[in-house]
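Entry 14. Ran structure prediction on the chain below.
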Amino acid sequence: MIVNSYPQLGWFAPQAEPVAQNTPDMIALAVRAATSVYQQKFDALSLDLDTVRQSIDRIATSIAAGQEQMTRSIDGMAARQQQITRNFDQLAAGQEQMTREITKLQAVEQYVLYKNSEPSPRPAPAPARNPVPRPSQAPMVR
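Output, structure tokens:
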């Protein structure tokens, strides 16, 4: 108060450093500090992002390999299915042939049984023959 009342005593008052001169330095320091912290976080996030991308690439590669394996397995199963179908068709054709052969054999068997169950016809008696004399037995004609 005394200093303010008597300007000639102003030299006696404590001198404060100029604020305008220190403010840009403090702002610059704060900006650099903040930038450094944000740069570190950004770098860490970039490393994490690279790790995630590598993991996704490995997963995609595994999925592609699995799909190829499944496709090969499905193709193999389809080929085996076709072979089984062909074998089944051959078996069915063979069974039909055997059924026809068995039917023929049964018909032959029935015919044979029928023929054997019929009484055989008796041969007709041979007509009586007149005995022809033998030359040694023939009467001698004189």
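The chain has a mean pLDDT of 80. Will compare against last week's run tomorrow.
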